[in-house]
């Protein structure tokens, strides 16, 4: 965390980004891009701004409690919260133009009270705590605490262009320090605050920013050169590009989604990555899927989910989402699993994945699917828990089609 306070102008930026997220419901990444575009911020100052903003969102209710404000009051009282954040972290106050002071004695009393309340301490909204307890039982407190930590920055080396050692040494020449991860063969961890997307290594397609947990999901696909592979919920292609590298550009990789703008984004990224065997296709109706019946060696279903495994990275969503969204997602996951599994050929593999840690979206879905579909058999599944691996939380299940 910070060792000296934010400057006045960085404090204003943090407040503006947070106001956009908390009072206008903008996703954090869009609020960043609106505020950062056109500014030439020093990379370490930009890193400090995102660290503070992210940390405030990860423990918003705690910081609000300490300075006696409600999240809804953020647009009027945000400077008080930012001052409280600095006090909590033992820093001097930032020099803001308009700044509401905090009452130290009240802050200290609130702090003592907060220390007795682990749910508040971990920045967890009540609905999420209830859900986590119901779904994960004893494992939940460790996950809840791990989800309140700052995420690390991971890259995936693009093996179509280089290897980890070459990437690390090229990045070093561009002022970025990074180390390889022992347990994820394609991943490196960035240990400096450098601006990655301005590097020539990025422009040349040598890496993508991708959490190490997400890299484990694409690893599980085990695609080989010459295979026919479908990434059926490809989005902007985080996992598609990884699969393309496994295939060494040989074979057919079909990336599908219901949103054309995401596939357009994927095409740009595939071009930069030199992934020439990627074809994109919009899912316009059920016919798009039916036409591919029993054709694929591998089908990855990285389904839409609650995202409750990636709250370290997307902490804004826990203040926007509600538990009512979950049953709708669960129905959609069921539908995708049932209908898109038809594309897997006999002897081929279906990989179901989410970035959630909740069994209802994970193993329960797989069990229900297998009960209704004896033509599939479970090979293995894995819960990638945030508290155990330190990555974002994911789930993956590998199933083989053993009959038509
Ligand atoms: C978890 S995201 C995928 C992330 C992506 N695989 C990656 O690694 O970057 C889920 C994706 O499913 C897409 N989606 C939503 N409903 C869908 C449907 N009925 N069929 C296929 N994709 C769908 C969403 O647009 C979203 O891009």
Structure explained in plain terms:
- The protein has 404 residues and is of the alpha/beta class.
- The chain has 3 domains: 8-123, no CATH class; 153-209, Alpha-Beta Plaits, CATH 3.30.70.1170; 212-401, Rossmann fold (3-Layer(aba) Sandwich), CATH 3.40.50.150.
- Helices cover 46% and strands 16% of the residues.
- It is built from 19 helices and 11 strands.
- The protein has helices at 8-24, 28-36, 43-58, 60-66, 74-88, 104-115, 118-121, 126-136, 140-146, 164-173, 200-203, 212-221, 238-246, 260-273, 286-290, 317-320, 325-340, 363-372, 386-389, and strands spanning 153-157, 178-180, 187-190, 207-209, 228-231, 252-257, 278-282, 296-302, 344-354, 376-384, 394-401.
- The strands form 2 sheets. A 7-stranded mixed β-sheet has the order 7-6-5-8-9-11-10, with helices on both faces. Strands 2-3-1-4 form a 4-stranded antiparallel β-sheet, with helices on one face.
- Helix 1 (8-24) packs across helix 2 (28-36), helix 1 crosses helix 3 (43-58) and helix 1 (8-24) crosses helix 5 (74-88).
- Residues 232-236, 238-239, 257-259, 262, 283, 302, 304, 336 line the site of S-adenosylmethionine.
- It is an enzyme of class 2 (transferase).
- Belongs to the class I-like SAM-binding methyltransferase superfamily. RsmB/NOP family.
- Residues 143-404 form the SAM-dependent MTase RsmB/NOP-type domain.
